[in-house]
Amino acid sequence: MMDLSRFSRRERLWMFFGGGVIVLILLYFAVAEPLINKFRAMDGEIAGLTERVARYRAAASGAGAEGQRQGEYQAALKSVEAASFTADTDALAAAQMTELVRAKALAAGITLGTSKPEKAEDYHGYRILNLSVTFNAPLAALANFMREMENDQKRMQIREAKIASQKQDYPDDVAETLSVRLLIAGLRYVPPNTNAEAK
Predict the structure, then answer these.
(1) Are strands 177-189 and 126-138 parallel, antiparallel or unpaired?
(2) Which residue, 28, 19, 81, 73, is CA-closest to 50?
(3) Dihedral of the CA atoms 191, 123, 51, 44 (nearest 10)?
(4) HSE-up of residue 101 (Cα within 13 Å, Cβ side)
(5) Where is pLDDT greater, at 48 or 62?
(6) Residue 110 in contact with residue 137, Cβ under 8 Å?
(7) 58 or 106: which carries more pLDDT confidence?
(8) Which residues pair with 117 in a beta bridge?
(9) 199/195 Cα distance (integer angstroms)
(10) Rounded CA gap, 13 and 7, in Å?
(11) For residues 50 and 152, is the Cβ–Cβ distance under 8 A?
(12) What is the spatial distance between Cα 156 and Cα 39, in angstroms, rounded to a whole number?
């Protein structure tokens, strides 16, 4: 380990500041930028899901469709619905999403500090649910959490990520602890002819 005592107090402060800046830059390129790119890709996925739902619904309700083909379309529609939350109201769907995110965090070894549903938005026959969560975790646990989220059948994406180190210097044998705030988006499927009151 490098002996820092041979440097002046000012030089040590500059070294710690520079190291902190490097860590923040690495966190941005390793975590935040991929999350931003994934959320941008979510727009295309939502549009694709919406188009598939419309096609499957039209085919499943068509009077002249063959029985077997109708069954295939209904199964495909169910798989699309399985990718979204289907509760009767935004509040119930947000509660489902909160429980799922909490379970994913626990599976990654993370205990959520806070979880707060934010305002939902309309999007092509879906509602986008927003959930704000905060927690403290090492980078490895954060990566495991992200993997857990990606592997779930529900479509959830990170809209915003604010990640900061809790302190500037850690011993070599101690993992750096990060303070994390995430805004997570999930889809709520709204069946056609649903009353606006269900929002």
Answers:
(1) antiparallel
(2) 81
(3) -140
(4) 30
(5) 48
(6) yes
(7) 106
(8) 131
(9) 8
(10) 10
(11) no
(12) 9
Note whether 31 and 163 are within 8 A (CB).
Answer: yes
Q: Quote the CA–CA distance of 105 and 135 in Å, as a whole number.
A: 9
Q: How high is the mean pLDDT of the chain?
A: 79
8 Å CB contact between 54 and 67: no
Return the closest-CA partner of residue 189 out of 86, 112, 90: 86
Per-residue pLDDT tens digits for 157-184: 888 889 888 776 666 666 778 889 999 9
Residues in a beta bridge with 145 = none
pLDDT score recorded for residue 197: 41
Answer yes or no: pTM beyond 0.70.
no
Alpha-carbon gap, residue 113 to 136, rounded angstroms = 8
Strand pairing class (156-165; 126-138): unpaired
What is the SS3 string spanning the chain?
Answer: CCCHHHCCHHHHHHHHHHHHHHHHHHHHHHHHHHHHHHHHHHHHHHHHHHHHHHHHHHHHHCCCCCHHHHHHHHHHHHHHHHCCECCCCHHHHHHHHHHHHHHHHHHCCCCCCEEEEEEEEEECCEEEEEEEEEEEEEHHHHHHHHHHHHCCCCCEEEEEEEEEECCCCCCCCCCCEEEEEEEEEEEEECCCCCCHHHC
